[in-house]
Amino acid sequence: YYIQGQRGIVKRFHPDIVFTATAAAMEAATFGCSVKFLKDYPPNILERPFKNAQDLDKLVVPKLDESPFVAYTVEVIEGLSSQFKGLVPIAGIWLDPIDLLANIVGPEVLMELLFFHPEEFQNVIEKLEPYSVGLANRMLEAGADFLVNYCSACNVGMITKDIAETVMEPILRRIYVEVKGGIIFHHGGSKIGKYIEIFKDLPHNAGFTIDARDSLTEAFEAVNEGQLVIGNISGPNLDRRSVTAIEKMVEKALKEAEGKGPYILLTSGADINLNAKEEQIEAFMESVKKYKPSSKEKKILGIACGIFQAEVDELVRQKRIKFPFKYL
């Protein structure tokens, strides 16, 4: 059904990216959490079995080959790949071990671990690492063109700058280097602008999806040259906006991003409510097509897999290719 739904979206709205299912609650269910299914929204976690740090002694990490969530995720990506590979990039929604832990224990227990049981925190992360990295690479093997790492635990609303620098960044650096493909660092529902500087040099990090409350200008100033900035219109609030308001938001974002670097306009909340009207989504898409850049200068950035870097660099050196490349 998910693949059928995505086929309908592509046919009707022609998006530039197709996403795998955002199903964090379903992944948490395989770790023992109970889930509530909602009529007009993705399922939510109802109850977690881990009430404190001591409860994590009961944590059982599912085997990749036995996890229904892993099987579903791979099946969805393979289905999307059979429909859209080479036509529309496929983005795989993925949780690193830190955010997987946050998902299955909740923010209170995560903070307890970070501040009062740092050694236990590191031990649990190491316990989750093979599962998380293994899932990431299976997603890429199944046909995902890149991963979107939903980083809810690594944002300004959750942790201090010191923890981001000394705890989170070294863990993500270790994890990212094991992932065999490009990764987009997602803001996770909170402002990320102030922390881009900390995470921008992670291996395989192709860019950042920023929150609707973040400044596009500040994000472009913070990222490395060639890294993508993605966002920053709220998806969950789209159904509350008039067509005129949506058109103005799109124009404002495109105007602010113009000439600053590689940019993808995206509803970065991210889910658009099911009661959003078709004309509201259409207004978003059509506003992009109608936008006329004020700058006459067009800059081209090539994006290629890192395994082709030597060959592409040689073509650039010979001036047979006359624009820079970003390698994933």
Quick take:
The protein has 328 residues and is of the alpha/beta class. It has helices at 2-13, 24-29, 68-84, 97-105, 107-116, 118-142, 161-176, 196-199, 216-222, 243-257, 278-290, 309-317, and strands at 18-19, 34-36, 44-47, 90-94, 146-150, 183-186, 205-209, 228-233, 263-267, 302-304, 325-327.
Strands side by side in the biggest sheet? 1-4-5-6-7-8-9
Coarse morphology: globular
Number of E-type strands = 11
String of helices and strands: HEHEEHEHHHEHEHEHEHEHEHE
Oligomer state of the chains in this structure = single chain
Computed Rg = 20 Å
Structural class: alpha/beta
Q: What portion of residues belong to β-strands?
A: 5-15%
Structure description:
The structure is a single chain. This protein is an alpha/beta fold. The protein is 44% helix and 14% strand. The chain has helices at 2-13, 24-29, 68-84, 97-105, 107-116, 118-142, 161-176, 196-199, 216-222, 243-257, 278-290, 309-317; strands at residues 18-19, 34-36, 44-47, 90-94, 146-150, 183-186, 205-209, 228-233, 263-267, 302-304, 325-327. A seven-stranded parallel sheet has the order 1-4-5-6-7-8-9. Strands 2-3 form a two-stranded antiparallel sheet. Strands 10-11 form a two-stranded parallel ribbon. It is globular and about 60 Å long.
